[in-house]
Amino acid sequence: MSLTVLTSAYRLRSLCRLQRIQGHMMSSQVDPGVLLEKVGCAGVITINRPKVLNALNLPMIRHIYPQLKKWESDNETDIVIIRGAGGKAFCAGGDIRAVTEAGKVGDPLAEDFFREEYILNSAIGSCRKPYIALIEGITMGGGVGLSVHGRFRVATEKTLFAMPETAIGLFPDVGGGHFLPRLQGQLGLFLALTGFRLKGRDVQRAGVATHFVESQKISELEKELVDLKSPSAEDISRVLDSYQDQSALDADKPFVLDQHMSDIDRLFSSSSVEGIVQNLKADGSEFANKQAKTLSRMSPTSLKITYKQLQAGAALSLQDVLVMEYRLSQACMRGCDFYEGVRSVLIDKDQNPKWNPSTLEEVSEESVEQCFSSLGEKDLMF
């Protein structure tokens, strides 16, 4: 075979290999689900999958992370703004169906998704540039991870926040073990175990959002933010404060859990999930009975993992919490409740999961401990 033919064959092979690599990289760029733009002084991230409530998938994470790091070190970029397209959702969570399918067959996505999502969560938490999340609409699970660790989180009357993972055999991840125990009293544990939903101004009153601004003022706020000249965090804070001061909607309504906060602190103060359930049943009030009923529908394994996750996370840094949560995510991938929960809630929608074990008493302390065990070389590294 002549040298020319060999050279041509080599070039063709190299070209094919390059096209395969580019195809893998570009498959997400045809419709990446996320728009990344420079507007004025700001790097603007728009989560752009409105038809699926801006659900977060791995290609989106792989677009956002490098751009965030680039903006962080770019002298021309002063702030980062993240927003959701479509008006209904900021981000309703991770693309759980894809993760479920991957986990069933041992596809690497079940590792890669959680690992890269948590690395992005950490990068948001440590971002040196002021990071402003406009959390209008549904903000749950993965959407909370894209927002709550940033310096500023702006809720509107359309915001709907929840960490509903215990209902699908998972746990409130994306750094839930860090921010939830830092909310007032036992509120974080209550939200984590029950998946209770907060709406509008209550998201800010709970401490999940830093500000509340009426929906109709958001585009005007955005324009003012991107037009700022070399703003400091204090400058941004002043702008957000002024918009909040102009937003009187629902200001006279009390916090939805206001009359229950002392009950939550009392009833959810226990050394175990079983103790919390006993407290609720013994109390017998309408509120306590409702929470007991809610907990009875959740995965017993998830409830116990979540309780321990928040107890530990209260004293850990965000990065250490995410290392712990990555271990928990992989324990859930190895277990059965996650797949059953997704089937029941998201696929068949019969809302009748068959948990295994089916009671709190059957979930041994040893099995919970194992979920927190090191993965050795497969542990999450930063």
From TrEMBL:
Keyword Cell wall biogenesis/degradation: no
A Pfam family it matches: ECH_2
Alphabetic keyword roster: Branched-chain amino acid catabolism, Hydrolase, Mitochondrion
Domain Enoyl-CoA hydratase/isomerase: residue ranges: 43-372
Compartmental location: Mitochondrion
Signal sequence residues: none
One annotated GO molecular function: 3-hydroxyisobutyryl-CoA hydrolase activity
A GO BP entry: L-valine catabolic process
Functional pathway: Amino-acid degradation; L-valine degradation
EC number: 3.1.2.4
Coiled-coil annotated residue ranges, if any: none
Domain of life, per lineage: Eukaryota
Family: Belongs to the enoyl-CoA hydratase/isomerase family.
PANTHER family, A to Z: 3-HYDROXYISOBUTYRYL-COA HYDROLASE, MITOCHONDRIAL, 3-HYDROXYISOBUTYRYL-COA HYDROLASE-RELATED
NCBIfam families given in the database record: PRK05617.1
Function: Hydrolyzes 3-hydroxyisobutyryl-CoA (HIBYL-CoA), a saline catabolite. Has high activity toward isobutyryl-CoA. Could be an isobutyryl-CoA dehydrogenase that functions in valine catabolism. Also hydrolyzes 3-hydroxypropanoyl-CoA.
Name of the featured protein: 3-hydroxyisobutyryl-CoA hydrolase
